Amino acid sequence: MLELYLNRPEELILRDAPAPGTVKENQARIRVTHGGICGSDLRVYKGSIPYATYPLRPGHEVLGVVVEAGNEVRHKVGTRVVVEPNTFCGECDYCRRGRTNICEQKTPIGVSADGAFAQELLVEGKYLVSVPDEIPDELAILIEPLSVTVHALKKAAISPGTSVAVLGCGTEGLFSIALALFKGARVTAVDVNPRKFDVAKQLGDVRVLHPGEIGDELFDVVVEAAGVRSSIEQSMRIVRPGGEIVAIGITGEPVEYPVMKIVRSEVTIHGSIIYTLEDWADAIGYLQDPRFNIRPILSKIMPLTEYQQAFADALSGDYAKIVLRF
Ligand SMILES: [Zn+2]
Ligand SMILES: [Zn+2]
């Protein structure tokens, strides 16, 4: 089988490797059909995640078909599936409360363990989610990154008429825009790069602004999806008293925390990390509704052999989601 492999940062190869061995009772063999390139794959590629280990197979957004299943796996051969790429133990205090996304044993694949960019994978049945027939491949491959924003946007009160600012129009920002629009919010998309607005505007009636154009305006909900200091600090300036910030962007930089405003104006800041399987089910529910529009977020599907170009395009910042066809 073929797999993508990083010998070290920036040294990405496509190589032939032995297919994974025997399927255990609780595992299924997946023939991967599509893999989405994520921002974290790009950071692993560039070597900018300190806890990433090399050599490493990148990738965690995959769609495939079950080709062999152990006895304990309820997904039958031939089922189209997506893979939950973060392990959870199911037994710790957090898992028992249904918060598998903050499990003590969580290991994200493709960063500190081999990832999913291979033509065949062995995956435990508990990490498989079957895809309904009416969701086409090009939308099914978006279920994982969409679930991140499904989880995040549940944290804040968003209903028809809520004013929502989304800071950062990368893929998570774009999914947040689509979901906030679907919930009936009035959405303002903010980015330093005006080229990012092309896709944002295709998602629906979205106002677009450069961060410098916001002025004194205040928003009920601010989704911080840029993950840079200036944007995180702006999120706290532009949230209205009693409002909510949903923080999904991450930076290692120190950030100024306006304690006076947060306390005196009763601002709530929600951190949000990945998802639980409940969010995946909800993401699939959204995708089954024809009014839910995220198709513009898929920029290109490229053959696996064009992986160099696909990574270069993804790194350019000129596209939204780029997907490899395995
Ligand atoms: Zn991802
Ligand atoms: Zn756990």
TrEMBL record:
Pfam assignment, any one: ADH_zinc_N
Keywords: Metal-binding, Oxidoreductase, Zinc
Residue span(s) of domain Enoyl reductase (ER): 7-324
Residues annotated as transmembrane: none
GO MF: metal ion binding; oxidoreductase activity
InterPro entries: ADH-like_C, ADH-like_N, ER, GroES-like_sf, NAD(P)-bd_dom_sf, Zn_alcohol_dh
SMART domains: PKS_ER
Descriptive protein name: L-iditol 2-dehydrogenase
Species of the source: Geobacter argillaceus
Phylogenetic classification of the source organism: Bacteria, Pseudomonadati, Thermodesulfobacteriota, Desulfuromonadia, Geobacterales
